[in-house]
Every structure is written in C-alpha cells, then in structure tokens.
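Incident log, structure service

09:12 report received: a user says their structure output differs between two submissions of the same chain.
09:20 pulled the input from the user's history:
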Amino acid sequence: MALFNQQYATCFLLSLCILSQCLTEGVIGFACNWGTRSTHPLTPQIVVRLMKDNGFNKVKLFEADPGALKALGRSGIQVMVGIPNDMLDSLASNVNAAIAWVTQNVSTYISKNGVDIRYVAVGNEAFLKTYNGRFVNATFPAIQNIQAALIKAGLGRQVKVTTPLNADVYQSDSGLPSGGNFRPDIQDQMINIIKFLRQNGGPLTFNIYPFLSMDADPNFPKEFAFFDGSASPVVDGSITYTNVFDANFDTLVSALEKNGFSSMPIIVGEVGWPTDGSANANIKNAQRFNQGLFDRIVKKQGTPKRTTAPDIYVFGLIDEDAKSIEPGPFERHWGVFNFDGSIKYPLNLGGGKSLVAAKGVKYLPKQWCVMSNQANPTDPSFADSISKACTYADCTSLSPGASCGNLDPKGNASYAFNMYYQTMDQRKDACNFNGLSAITTINPSPPQGSCKFEIMIDLGKHENKSTTSFAASMKGTCSMVMLVLSFMFTMLVSIISA
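09:34 re-ran on a clean worker, output below:
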C-alpha cells in the first residue's frame, strides 16, 4: 500500500509540474517589434511560434498586416497595431476614414480571429526633425479620430491609442536629465497629445536608441551606451547615471514633470542594437547591449526617476532585408534573430532559458552564384554588374566596417552576385552577369570572420502549421492534465483517508 501511495504521489507531482508549465507559459513577458519588410519572410505562423518559444507575449506591428494579425489570433500574445505615417493626413481630415480603418483592422480581427489587440499606434516617429514638420499638424487630429472610431466600435476601454515618438521630441539645455523639456517647435502639439492620451487612458510611447547616439557622434563615450559600461557616470544632483538609456528616459520624465504630467505612463516602443552594416553594428556589441537589456526586463528594473519598469519592446525580432536604408545600412540588421529565425548570438532570458531558433524553416538548395574563376575585375562590365545586383538585393554587409566590408574585389562581386541570385529564388537566369558569374555548390563564405554568403528561405516549402492549432493544442493538453490531476488528487485523498 505504501508503494501504491508513493506511485500515486509521484504521478500527482509530475502532473503538477506539467500543469505549472502550462500556466507559466510566456510569463517572462518580453515584448518585441515585428517588421515585415523582407524579400523572403518567414510565414506568420512560424514567427508567432518563434515568439512564444522565446517568451514574447507582447508584439508591436508597424501596420495592420493581415497574415500577421491572423496568425496572432488566440495566441496569447498582446498586440499593438500601427498606422503608417502616410495615412495620417486622410485619418486626420476624415473621421469616417478612421472608422473604416478601425472596423477593418481592429474590430474584425478581435471578433473573428480572437486577436488580443491592446493598442493602436497612430503614426511612427511622426515628429522626427528629418521630416521637416511634414506630419506635425496631422498627428493629433488622427489620434482623436482613431479614438472616436474605437469608442464607436465599443472598444474604447479595451483598446488604447498611443503614438510612438522618437527621443528627439525632447531635449535638455543643461545636458542633464533634470533639464529635460519638449522641443519648443512642437511644445503645443505634445501637450495636446499628452492631455488627450491621459484623458482616454492611453500611454506615451517613445523609441530610445543608444546605438544611434553612439554611431552618429565619434566623440560619444562608447561605454556609456551599454548597461555594464565603465564610462564616467553623469551626476545630476542626487542622481548618478551610468548609461544613456536611463539618462534619456529620465530626460523624458523630467519633461513630463515640468508640464504637469508626472504620472503619465510610458512605453519604450523600440530599443535594440543592430549586428551589421557599420563598424559599431556588430555581433559583439549587439549581444552585450541586448543581454543587459533583457537582464533589466527580467529584473523589472526601472530608472532612477521611474523605479517601476516600463514595458520595453525590443527592436527587432528578425532582420528585414527589404527595409529602407535611408538612416544607414544597419537598418536591415536590427533583429535579435537572423532573417530566417536562426540565432545570431546567445542570450540568457532568465530562469535558465536561452534563445530558441525558428522551427519548420525550409531553404533553397545549397548552391551559390559567385564570380567565375575565369573572370577578371578589370572587365568593363564588372562595376555595372555589381551595381545591378545591389540595386535589387541587399548588399549592406559590404558596407565599410560591416561583416563583409573587407573582401577583395572578386569577393565583393561574388557576394553581390549571390545576394541577387538568392533574392531571385535561384532562378537560372539570375546568375548571368555578362559572363562574369558561375554557380557553385561549395560554400564561398570566408572561413574566418562573420561574413556569410546566404541561402534564402524557400517560400514554397515552409512548414505552415497554424498557430491557432498550436495554441489550441496547448490548451487541450493543459485541460487534459487538469482533468487527470483532479482525478488523481481525489484518488490520493481517498487512499490517504483509508
């Protein structure tokens, strides 16, 4: 009888452990940005599975992408869905346009697909100085109309409005966080937006980029960009700042305090570090920065002026090889994961968890397009051939200081030819550069360093298991475990009582 009781107790504890896994899935609470500007994107189902496997339970989309939204249905992931800047004028001038947008991109996905939409992000960094005021007058009216549309749809309490802004909307004349205030040219717009968001329960969303601060200024103290840096601290009265993230965030807090919004909730909409495209954008720096960032998130660490940790949306989840490179070649390399969901570098996610790569990814055949052994860089068509390839494919890794920036002329041509060949799905005519190229089955990636000649995703062979079915199967498993656990607990109690 004692052995029988012990066996029941062991089974009971095992079931309890399984149930605890069900109940704590995604509890870590990471948040990320999911950009979709890729020539060979992962299927939305694979991306959602990637997020769930790595503890991301919040995601920000830059637009209402139908595939992404459908895949997020009943996934347990909270969604912030964005509205691009080029839509602001129409939404600002016509409330019916806002109603139509909310109906199509919020109400429908909530009711029909079970998407857990929590925020609508109106515009993206619309007050950037580089836009020269293009969106300044449209942003606030667009926010008002989207809010009205959410109320009309009966979603005013469930879905909140926000607008992601860049940190350049505030400044400090003293150079210290305590001197923070909003830019004079947009002061009135900022106050109106903040008042309106506060009245309707919406947060402020700000993007903070220590990488951009360092990359733009050769005199920026590098160590101050990292959370474990050894740069001289910045002393601001009774507060000491050891990293630029805290100093930047608290500059915003000071600006809010000066204008009567000391308790305004703040979301960090984007923060991260790229891995390629410039000398500072590399694996070593990205791993160092993001590990410090994830450690803060796990510890729920705030800043000196806001000790309560904000929601932080890591930028980004995966690389995007078709994204605009106007800010710099590094723009296509912000992902914690490579374009195919493979791991770039290890990260400790807390609780003994590490990054998990995407599952079910299928690739094109292992073949590459390279410069022919018989070809010569002095060929008259050499430069034009490289230019053609890089016009239609991503050659940002060839940028000075980037991962493939030190290749010789033949290596540059091979890299460019291959990126074009892969982007064009390895079509036979895609490795035809005026007799300069040839197909090889030998990987041409240099044996040393981080330069990699890619093989693209085979878009026709993706494993396409529904995330909904994945979520449903998990719910089914947990429900079964609970039933078994309940039965075993009843039996165990009766045996002990006997």
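09:41 both user submissions now match this output. Likely a transient worker issue. Closing.
09:42 reviewer note: Residues 103 and 485 are 43 Å apart (CA to CA). Residues 368-440 form one domain.
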